[in-house]
Amino acid sequence: MISIYLKEKLKTLFQCKGKITVLTGAGVSAESGIPTFRGPEGYWTIGSTNYQPQDISTNRMLQSNPKEVWKWFLFRRGVCRAAQPNEGHKALVEMEKLLGDRFTLITQNIDGLHLRAGNSMKRTFQIHGNLDYMRCTKPCSTKLHYISDEFPFIQRHQEPTKKDWDMIVCPDCGAPARPHALLWDEYYDEEWYRWESSMNTANHTELLIIVGTEGATNLPNQIANLVSLNKKTIIDINIVKNRFSDMAQNTGRGFFIQQPSAKALPEILKIWKEVRE
Ligand SMILES: [Zn+2]
């Protein structure tokens, strides 16, 4: 439950007419049952060697052993596709409908759950990519290609058939395709990961709502720092205290809501709707 005190504060805050940005991370997906893939569930074996995501999910591995990289991503895709958007995802879809152009969603999650819930591609910056998509390894176009539902959802270490592999090519030029995901040894860019758009949005936002992320990656930190530097408001929603909750509270203009996002976001949405009525 959000306290009456906080509710009144939020009502005042939601009367602003400026831009509102929501930044989401793994915590939102975890509430749909998606593991972080960094712990014991993340290991991957090639031959007799165990690899972690930071070894397998790299451009270096993509160059030397693309099929292993694909198998890892296709396995993860299967886990993510079996999960369903939760009440937090659904509340963010409603927020986009309410706010229109004032709303931007920046997500680190590559499970595609925000789009599946109904947020628009236009207002959702998927800064780490989306497992539902692949793209050409050659500079043939900037198009994303949806990975066909005909492609099987492979189990851990299952070997796709030759027919399956034949689907993992660029439909436009026939060159090998790659997962649409930021690999560990790659950099954010605008073309694929909306780096500049994200920073530009952060620079013009009145209110930043950070949900389910503890700032382990670079871009979310830069976004939060910029909003803080601009003396705008940060609300952090997380089940644990973290550097963003400290940041939100230390500025004196923000709040920490220590709750699961599937509970907090629908409550926030309700308050928002009350303000508009
Ligand atoms: Zn191509």
Task: Kindly provide the radius of gyration, computed on alpha-carbon positions and rounded to a whole number of angstroms.
Answer: 19 Å
CATH architecture of the largest domain: 3-Layer(aba) Sandwich
Quick one: CATH superfamily of the largest domain?
A: TPP-binding domain
State the helix count. 13
Mean pLDDT: 92
- Give the amount of beta strand, in percent: 15-25%
User: The CATH topology of the largest domain, please?
Assistant: Rossmann fold
Name the bound molecules.
zinc ion
Order the strands across the largest sheet as they lie in space: 5-4-1-9-10-11
Largest sheet report = 6 strands, parallel
Characterization of the model:
The chain has 277 residues and is an alpha/beta fold. It folds into two domains: 4-34 and 85-128 and 188-276, TPP-binding domain (Rossmann fold, 3-Layer(aba) Sandwich), CATH 3.40.50.1220; 40-82 and 134-181, 2-Layer Sandwich (SIR2/SIRT2 'Small Domain'), CATH 3.30.1600. It contains 13 helices and eleven strands. The strands form three sheets. Strands 5-4-1-9-10-11 form a six-stranded parallel beta sheet, sandwiched between helices. α1 crosses α13. The radius of gyration is 19 Å and the shape is elongated. The two termini are 22 Å apart. The model has no long low-confidence stretch (mean pLDDT 92). It binds zinc ion. Residues 136, 138, 140, 170, 172-173, 175 line the site of zinc ion. Residues 136, 138, 140, 170, 172-173, 175 line the site of zinc ion (ZN).
